[in-house]
Design brief:
single chain, 347 residues, alpha+beta, HSP40/DNAj peptide-binding domain, 3 domains, four-stranded mixed sheet, three-stranded mixed sheet, elongated
């Protein structure tokens, strides 16, 4: 028994010094730039902003950005897992390692939780759920983006009007909650009662304000993807505003049609070109020219694929394909001499 306690004490000392060393290191909360008591929604919000900033596709060849991206992903994985976050908050990274080494708290052996339970007794779990903060309504706006913006990236200015909370005269009831108390109804007999208790807060009012929002369109975004402006939705008194979400849709284009990551277009050629071949280019969405000519025979409705001339894949350097459908323009009429010549050539 004494030997076991000595081993446990030694392990605790090692953990203590490791915890001291880790204080100098950047914590997972620092990595995501959130306070220690941040809600899961705050963590997700912060992660999304940082992940977009440090994504390898946006920082090609930047080792520092790649390292930062890996660090914020690791921090996000821990802080959005209730069990891992609880262990990290109490025992740091070393606690997570011990937790993983013991099979994630399952199976045989003594894990880090058991060690502290043995020394300090009981090990009462310190999982305190935060009071749910009321949140205003999310506002979803359908936004048509041009094929050019979706191909090259761009931005759209949108006029936005919303209610804004402003100070007002007087006081109001706020932070209302139900408090339980006991009332004596007879000697030795008590009745449990509930009473609503409120505080007095400065009064507020809603005022309508308008401003421009710049929506950034990223290359290769798909229909239905959202650009989110956190806490820019509908406000709510004594709570957090909702989010403003722009749902992206591809606007119709006069020359190209999009299907996923591919582009489709139709090109009309003459009957002579269809028979003897032709040289031809088409102008792409960024104005570069694509050679679509042929030296052979082109059949009506024939479709040819031009690799990597389609839409860029979102957050990638790859592209889809371009499919060109050829329409053959036949003459409306032929003279007898023309018919004779054609018969002579084709017979």
């Amino acid at each position: 028994m004494e030997c076991r306690r000595a081993r446990l004490l030694l392990l605790l000392v090692l953990l203590f010094f490791n915890a001291l060393a880790s204080l100098a290191a950047k914590s997972y909360y620092d990595e995501l730039q959130v306070p220690k008591g941040a809600s899961e929604e705050q963590i997700k919000r912060a992660y999304r902003k940082l992940a977009l900033k440090y994504h390898p596709d946006k920082n090609p060849g930047n080792d520092e950005a790649n390292k930062k991206f890996a660090e914020i992903n690791n921090a996000y994985e821990v802080l959005t897992d209730k069990e891992k976050r609880s262990i990290y908050d109490r025992y740091g990274e070393e606690g997570l390692k011990q937790h993983a080494a013991s099979g994630g708290g399952r199976g045989g052996g003594m894990n880090i939780q058991d060690i502290f339970n043995n020394f300090f007794g009981g090990g009462r779990r310190a999982e305190e759920e935060e009071d749910k903060i009321p949140k205003g309504d999310d506002l979803i706006v359908d936004l048509d983006a041009t094929l050019e913006d979706l191909y090259m990236g761009g931005s759209i200015k949108v006029w936005r009007e919303k209610n804004v909370i402003k100070p007002a005269l007087g006081k109001r009831r706020c932070n209302c909650r139900n408090e339980v108390y006991h009332r004596q109804i007879a000697p030795g007999m008590f009745q449990q009662m509930t009473e609503e208790v409120c505080e007095q807060c400065p009064n507020v009012k809603y005022e309508r304000e308008g401003y421009f929002v710049t929506v950034d369109i990223e290359k290769g975004m798909h229909d239905g993807q959202e650009v989110i402006f956190y806490e820019d939705g509908e406000p709510i008194i004594d709570g957090e505003p909702g989010d403003l979400k722009f749902k992206i849709h591809t606007a119709p284009h006069d020359r190209f049609r999009r299907e996923g990551n591919d582009l489709h277009t139709t090109v009309t050629i003459s009957l002579v070109q269809a028979l003897v071949g032709f040289e031809k280019t088409i102008q792409h969405l960024d104005e570069h020219l694509v050679e679509i000519g042929s030296k052979g025979i082109t059949k009506p409705k024939e479709v040819r694929k031009f690799k990597s001339e389609g839409m860029p894949l979102h957050l990638s350097n790859k592209k889809g394909d371009l499919y060109v459908t050829f329409e053959v323009l036949f003459p409306k009429s032929l003279t007898e001499d023309q018919k004779t010549q054609i018969k002579a050539v084709l017979s």
